[in-house]
Amino acid sequence: MAKAKSTKAKSTKPAGKPAGTEDVEDLLQMYEQMVRIREFEDKVNELYTSAKMPGLAHLYIGEEAIAVGVCEALNGDDYITSTHRGHGHCIAKGAAVDIMFAELLGKAAGYCGGKGGSMHIADQANGNLGANAIVGGSAGIAAGAAFSAKRLGTGQVAVCFFGEGALGQGLLYETMNMAQLWKLPVIFVCENNMYNEYTHYNETAAGTLAGRAEAFGIHTEEIDGQDARVVNEAAKRLVERARKGEGPSFLICNTYRYHGHHVGDIDRAYYRPKEEELEWQQRDPITILADWIIGQKLSDQSVLDHIKADVKSEVARGAEFALNAPYPDPSEVDTNVYA
Amino acid sequence: MSTPNGNGRVITMGQAIKEALAEELRRDPTVYVMGEDVAEAGTAFKVLKGLVDEFGTDRVIDSPISEPGITGLGVGAAMTGMRPVVDIMFGDFSTLIMDQMVNQAAKIHYMSGGKLKVPMVLRTTMGATRRSAAQHSQSLHAWFSHVPGVKVVIPSTPYDAKGLLKTAIRDDNPVVFFEDKMMYQLKGEVPEEEYTIPLGVADIKREGSDITIVATSSMVQVSLAAADMLAEIGISAEVVDPRCTFPLDKEALINSAKKTSRAIVVDEGYERYGVTAEMASVIADGAFYYLDAPVKRMGAMDVPIPFSPVLEDLTVPTPDTVFEMAKTLCGAN
Ligand SMILES: Cc1ncc(C[n+]2csc(CCOP(=O)(O)OP(=O)(O)O)c2C)c(N)n1
User: Fold this and answer.
1) Known catalytic residue: B136?
2) 3-class DSSP state for residue A191?
3) ipTM of the predicted structure?
4) What tens digit of pLDDT does each residue of B95-133 get?
5) If we measure between CA atoms, which residue out of A43, A109, A68 comes closest to residue A312?
6) Is B237 helix (H, G, I), strand (E, B) or coil?
7) Which one of A39, A316, B123, B194 is least enclosed by Cβ atoms within 10 Å?
């Protein structure tokens, strides 16, 4: 824990609501979104390994609580920027799985007409300014979106998702500096899944992760990224701060990717132990939230099962839609180069 | 034909650029200027001096020394409703911002299938002969011209600079605007009234019939001086200024070469793999059967620009070297 939770934390609950009371709708919504990401990605894995999907796929499985916990604290028109591991952020921000599948398969019906693919999905209608295949590459874009939100007085905030690998990139520190100087409403969300591709972050990051943002005087929190409730609470706090003009923040979410760096990364023993993988899978974000919901008797297993079944068929339909969808017309190749 | 009449009002290129920015800042509240020392100092070249007085530090913004950062902020702000003008002091520093320009700004519209737009202008400088040595003297416009998704403007007169910059700010694409730092004091006629110049339309700076000299930025002045010298020996040179490397007015280049049957392309970027190669190829391709001689290229010598004045002056085309080249090409030796 870098810093104690700010005293403003509890004020994020609607007035009159006793602290600790959970809104069941919200929890079920988070559950559903996490399941949607998981099911989507399982399907991606299947499509990829059966050679139906071109390109690369970086699965987010295991990290769902972060995208969902953060995005559930945002409004539809708040901005996010995302990474090469971006499916989770995209879904959590409201994207439809069928159109996402279409994009992943390079089909005309995809979010970007098949021109972006897995690593570049942008969904402007939901404030998603795009996944980004350059590690750390979107820090400026997120801060720029926050800059324009502030200048235009829209009240929007911007969230910059990135992996801990991006902490090696200078752009991040340049934007943190400006964000804090100018109190921009941007939240830097570091998804620390511990591996920069195939290298443990202990070998790539000197000092502490939190210390980086703290050096700029940026409000920093480090939390358990497997617990969607914890992530969501933190995100609400930080969003609130940002909207009130209190400036940027840095949220470190500790997490783990269950799969390889990308779908093809199957032989992983040389860089991380099997036991470690199994250990982390004991702290599965979907199970953690489900257990909480059931344990608190906020809902029951049949409701969760129902949600899951619905999502499963939605994902199956979405994939089917995309597989049957036409490719872009060849005439599209040189459109959209210039606006 | 040649730069329209400015109704007699003469200002410098620096003033023209400042006027363009001031007018656009006044016209559109989403326009802002950000860069190192742009506000009180009015940039390292003093070009924007006084702009902050009218528009305040919210719109003319001093930034940290963070070229990738301010470029990235520009990209994000442009995607979300602003029209940023990002000021990069020396074009040489564009080495630092290539990811933000090449992989982000230039790609976003295409990768998003047309959903997102990046209406931003990157203002930066080019040009040698300031005794600034190798890290402050390059003309790197070819780098940006190489990348689909960005437009590149290289004006040569105050009139052009003003009209093109205003258009660039209103353009919905990332536009890189190169100003030759030796030309800020160059004077020319600029009308009081509002005007814009479309991107991608060349301007014939001097009409002629014996040889075409395609020249960019400061090389326009160099080539005009060479044309004067050529006139004295009876050679009539036409000087064509493309004004933008992209969009490139291919027709204008080809038509002029067809008319004169000889062409030289003069640019201050490095000669190898440079802007001149592209333009020469366009002419060779489009006017092949009209040409009486191969198209010749002249650019900065392929060396880091040296500090010593005697050396530096050797590295870029001059009126004398352009004159010599034209004379040879016309068989007038
Ligand atoms: C600038 C840049 N350098 C290298 C790469 C290759 N690359 C892609 S993902 C990755 C690792 C990123 O690790 P991290 O930021 O921790 O994100 P994670 O994959 O763990 O989600 C690397 C090195 C890249 N895409 N961009």
Assistant:
1) yes
2) strand
3) 0.90
4) 999 999 999 999 999 999 999 999 999 999 999 988 899
5) A43
6) strand
7) B194
The three-class DSSP label of residue A163 is strand
The residue of chain A nearest to residue B246, with distances taken between CA atoms, is A338
Among A93, A189, A188, A186, residue whose Cα is nearest residue A147? A186
pLDDT in tens, A319-329: 999 999 999 99
Residue A98 alpha carbon to ligand 1 centre in Å: 27
Whole-model pTM?
A: 0.92
What pLDDT is attached to residue B129? 82
Yes or no: say if A238 and A231 are a contact pair by the CB < 8 Å rule. no
DSSP lists the bridge partners of residue A288 as none
- Cα three-residue angle B278-B96-B243, rounded to 5 degrees: 35
Residue A115 pLDDT level (bands cut at 50, 70, 90): very high
Per-residue pLDDT at A189 exceeds 50? yes
Instruction: Please indicate whether residue B146 is annotated as part of the active site.
Output: no
Cα–Cα nearest to B77, from A178, A83, A117, A181: A178
* Rounded to 5°, angle at Cα A256 from A251 and A261: 110
Output the CA–CA distances (angstroms, integers) from residue B209 to B212, B231, B257, B261, B267, in the order listed.
8, 11, 9, 9, 21
CA distance B303 to B270: 8
Contact B140, B245 (CB under 8 A): no
Decide if A260 touches B, using CB distance below 8 A. Answer: no
Helix (H) or strand (E) holding B13: helix B13-27
d(Cα A129, Cα A135) in Å, to the nearest integer?
A: 15
DSSP code, position B95: G
| pLDDT (mean) for A248-263 | 97
The residue ranges of chain B whose pLDDT is under 50 are 1-2
A150 has a pLDDT exceeding 80:
yes
And the tokens for A193?
A: 């899944």
Q: What is the mean pLDDT of chain B?
A: 96
Q: Which listed residue (B19, B24, B67, B312) is catalytic?
A: B67
Q: Which residue has 């929890």 as its token pair? A: A27
B193: tokens are 């009234």
Q: What pLDDT, on the 0 to 100 scale, is given for residue A16?
A: 44
Amino acid present at A191: E
Distance (Å, rounded) from C-alpha B106 to C-alpha A337? 8
Confirm or reject contact between A333 and chain B (CB < 8 A): no
Interface of B with A (CB under 8 A): 30, 32, 58, 63-64, 66, 68-82, 84, 99-100, 103-104, 108-119, 148-149, 151, 172-173
Measured in angstroms, the CA of A288 and the nearest CA of chain B are apart by: 35
Mutate to test the interface with A, among B79, B118, B151 (most CBs of A within 10 A): B79
Chain A positions in Cβ-Cβ contact with residue B76 (cut-off 8 Å): 81, 129, 140-148, 158
Q: What are the chain B neighbours of A112 within 8 Å (beta carbons)?
A: 111-113, 115
User: Among A41, A81, A84, which residue has the most ligand 1 atoms within 8 Å of its CB, making it the best to mutate?
Assistant: A84
Q: Rounded distance, CA A49 to CA A60, Å?
A: 16
